[in-house]
Each structure stands twice: as C-alpha cells, then as structure tokens.
Amino acid sequence: MENISFYQKFNPLRRQTQTRPVPAIKSINMNFPESINISHLGVHYRTQEALRDVNCIVKPGKLTGIFGPNGAGKSTLMKAILGLVPMSHGNVLYKNKPLMQQLDKVAYVPQRNQIDWNYPATVWDVVMMGRIKKTGWLRSFSTVSRQIAKEALERVGMREYSDRTIGELSGGQQQRVFLARALTQQADIFCFDEPFVGIDQKTQSVVFEVFQELAAAQKIVLVVNHDLGESITHFDDLILLNRDLIATGSRQQVLTEKNLNLAYGGKVMYFAA
Ligand SMILES: Nc1ncnc2c1ncn2[C@@H]1O[C@H](COP(=O)(O)OP(=O)(O)OP(=O)(O)O)[C@@H](O)[C@H]1O
C-alpha cells in the first residue's frame, strides 16, 4: 500500500502537486508566486511603530519560524499577513494576488490566550468548525467531512476525546484539537501563533511531526515561536525580527552571532545552527 500521510491523503491538490510541472513565473514584481511575498510591510499601533519595512518570502515545502525577542512584532507580522491588523504600508501577495482576498486558503490557530476555553463546545464541534467554509453555514456536514474530521482527530491522538468539552482538556490536548481543526480545513497555508506555549513534550512532538508532514505535502507552514532552544532545529527557514527584519533565509543563514546580537542585543548565547 502507498505510504502517505494523513494530510496528503485528503489533499485535493495532491495529484496536481505530484504530476504538474513547476509553473512558469509570470509576475514581474515577484519571483515566487507559490510563496507568500511580503514587501515593505509596516504596522503602527496608534503612535507606536510595531514593524518597519519588512521584506521576506515564506516558501511552500518548508517549516518557517518567526523568531525574535518579546515585543519584536512576531504576532503582529502574522496578523498583518492575514489582514487581522491593518498594514500602514506594504503588501502581501500569494499567487500574484493579495493574500487577504484568498483567506479561504488559510488555516490559522491564534495564541491560546485569544481562545475562550469556557465556551461550551465539544472537541468534535471545534474540529467540525474547520469544515464550515467548505460546507457552508446551516448546512449539514457530509460523510466525507465527518471522515476528514475523524482522521484529523486520530492523527493528533484525540479521537477518544470527541465528546469532551474543550475546557475539560489539558493545554496540550487543547492545542492538538486546534491543530486537528486546522487540518480539516485542507488549506494551502497554515499559520500558528505560539503553538508550543503551555504544552507537554508529547504534544510538541506530535505538533512538529504534523508540521513536517504539511511541509512535505508542499504546504506553507508559518509558525510564531520564541523558544531559541533545541526545538529551533525543527525549522527549515527563519524570519528573525526586532521591529525591523534582522535576517531571513535558511536556519543556517539566519542563526549567526551577528544576527542574534542584532535581534537580542547580546542577551542570548550564540549556538551552532
Ligand atoms: N493591539 C495592540 N495595540 C497596541 N500595541 C500593540 C498591540 N498589539 C501589540 N502591540 C505592541 O506592538 C509590539 C509588538 O507586539 P507583538 O505582540 O507583535 O510582539 P511579539 O514579538 O509577538 O511579542 P511576544 O513574544 O511578547 O508575544 C509590542 O510593543 C506590543 O506592545
């Protein structure tokens, strides 16, 4: 039997990504239409400048981390990319069009402190929410949607918790449920804001495994993280911020002593990428 991941199995683009040749680059303005292209992005909160002239690309097939010290603008960058905070200037393009016009292609899991854990929803309800865009409001879910949700829960080891309310779960279990919901969306772009905060080691391993499966399926996987410890070695590409873009590229290119000093002001030890 063909050995494929959960995500590849339910990925409607799977056959195309396997057989279709790489499309020709048509845009004059940007070189990577299959990537997210971020140009001259700036964000102000009232008088405070949170991000200044950020230019980078986020490629499919890579696990990309947004790193930087507290208050560097990591979450702001993710939110600006998704149109959740207004940009003061710049643009974010995907497939030659503003990403904001294509949010149906995005699955986003916000920071856990932005989720109401007392809301009386079951694990199953939360995961099925990931199918609403495909199904439509007030319409009943298809057998296929139910199957996708079951397999997503299975993938993150939460199938037997389907009937629990989300408030009854541990932090790690809650994070796995939201990961399952993101999987059911069958998106092209996956964005996670601080998914490793307050979770156990087992959940961290499951989450990284799923991220790597998504990247292997040529998805865009963008993760805000602040942990400069061993877990950073799971990332392929990094965006290092401190209001300005300090560096972007492969992990090896970004994690230099000079870049870390610029971002953290000499407060972290340099270690080999
Ligand atoms: N809604 C807001 N209104 C005003 N200022 C804000 C708002 N959100 C963020 N900021 C400010 O913008 C700056 C960047 O915040 P942001 O949350 O993006 O940083 P971060 O790198 O994600 O930080 P952390 O690691 O602490 O979560 C900070 O100085 C923060 O105080």
Automatic annotation (TrEMBL):
Residues 36-268 form the ABC transporter domain. InterPro entries: AAA+_ATPase, ABC_transporter-like_ATP-bd, ABC_transporter-like_CS, Metal_Ion_Import_ABC, P-loop_NTPase. Gene3D superfamilies: P-loop containing nucleotide triphosphate hydrolases. It comes from the Bacteria. Keywords: ATP-binding, Nucleotide-binding, Transport. Coiled coil: none annotated. CDD domains: ABC_Metallic_Cations. GO terms for molecular function: ATP binding. Belongs to the ABC transporter superfamily. This is Metal ABC transporter ATP-binding protein. It comes from Okeanomitos corallinicola TIOX110.
